[in-house]
Amino acid sequence: VGIQAIKMPIGESTALTAANTMANYYLPARGGMVVRAAYMKRVYGFPLARYGALTVSITGLTILVAAAIGLIGVIASASISGDMNQRGLLTFTGVAIAVVLGVGAAVLLSGYAKGDGRFAEVVRGFRSGMTMWAESRANLGIFLLWTVGLFAAQGFRLWLSFRAVGVPVDLPGMMVIQATAAVAFVLALTPGNIGLKEGAVVFSASLLNIDPDLALLASLIDRAAALIVTFGVGLASVRYLARRTAGGFPDEAQETT
Questions:
Q1: CA dihedral for 34, 40, 41, 43, sign (positive or negative)
Q2: Which residues neighbour 2 within 8 Å (Cβ) at sequence distance 6 or greater?
Q3: CA distance 151 to 65
């Protein structure tokens, strides 16, 4: 929104995000992105190609942030608390390095990604989106701060879920678990990422020598808490957006861009 210089009211932006999150549970993968794209196109005339490029770049940036935070957590867990076994350290470190190299390769190969293949299209979109971010570094900084803040909020909710089942997890360990869950969310393949996030939590918790059964229970509690908020706020947001649109909001929005 900032890159496109759209003046969207904070209430509408919040409602759109909530509706987008709820829609992820109704459509395959991250279907909420499609809903958001359609709304932005209809109301603000946001070009779909530009939206797609930014979405691909946002996915890459989010994965990089999660990999960096998770790697910090791995090092801290291994060297400070000693909670992570050597196998877990090597596994997570290898995955984090592979992620960084993969994103970097996508950038380097973007100049050579020609043709109509799916991979070439994704790589070109990523490069295009990163170019937009480079031209608007202030918005990039805001996005990164927002991503870290959201990461912390979701991690805190998951930490409370572990506490609820009697498993205290320290900060480095929580960074590892939340980083893995965040990557699974970004690469969602099922509606609402159901099953994938829970599997990611159990996997990363096992690296910290946490009982898989308790980790699964904690992840289910976290999912229940997320569903309550998602549908409670999401349904109200859909009604809010519908009223705004029905009230002639699209015309007003075009005047503020």
A1: positive
A2: 136, 138, 139, 142
A3: 9
Find the length of the chain: 257
Q: Exposed/middle/buried for 251, CB within 10 Å: 0-12, 13-18, 19+?
A: exposed
Lowest mean pLDDT: which of 6-20, 147-161, 215-229? 6-20
- CA 257 – CA 252 distance, rounded (Å): 9
Please give the Cα distance from 169 to 156 (Å, whole number).
11
CA distances to 24, 35, 248, 251 from 245, rounded to whole Å, are 21, 14, 6, 9
Q: Which of 107, 220, 101, 206 is nearest to 158 (CA)?
A: 220
| Digit-coded pLDDT (tens) for 8-37 | 777 888 888 888 888 888 766 567 788 888
Tell me the one-letter amino acid at 245.
T
Q: Give the Cα separation of 111 and 116 in Å (integer).
A: 14
Q: What are phi and psi of 95, to 5 degrees?
A: -65, -45
Question: How do residues 50-84 score in pLDDT, each as one tens digit?
Answer: 787 788 778 878 888 888 888 787 777 766 555 55
SS3 content of the chain, % helix, strand, coil (to 5): 80, 0, 20
The answer to whether 134 and 52 are in contact (CB under 8 A) is no
**Mean pLDDT of the region 197-218:** 90
Nearest to 172 by CA among 142, 204, 132: 204
Spell 134-164 as b/e; 16+ CB within 10 A means b.
eeeeebbeebeeebeeebeebbeebbebbee
What was the pLDDT predicted at 251? 45
> For 107-140, what is each residue's pLDDT tens digit?
555 555 555 655 566 666 677 777 777 777 788 8
